[in-house]
Write a structure and sequence with these properties.
Order of helices and strands: HH
Number of strands: 0
Structural class: mainly alpha
Radius of gyration: 11 Å
Shape: globular
Number of helices: 2
Length: about 50
């Protein structure tokens, strides 16, 4: 899933949300991944792979 998010701030938010526990936090995480992936379709990666 992380491969679909291409902006620096998006990857930082992905890391932050993925560490949170609980049902509502997981729901928010998946909602974020869905929206960020759709938004970043067609964008080039803004950071280099580590």
């Amino acid at each position: 899933m992380k491969n679909n998010i291409k902006t620096v701030c998006g990857i930082e938010k992905y890391d932050e949300l993925s560490k949170r526990k609980g049902f509502l936090n997981q729901l928010r995480f998946y909602w974020f991944v869905l929206c960020a992936s759709l938004r970043d379709i067609g964008k080039k990666k803004t950071i280099k792979e580590e």
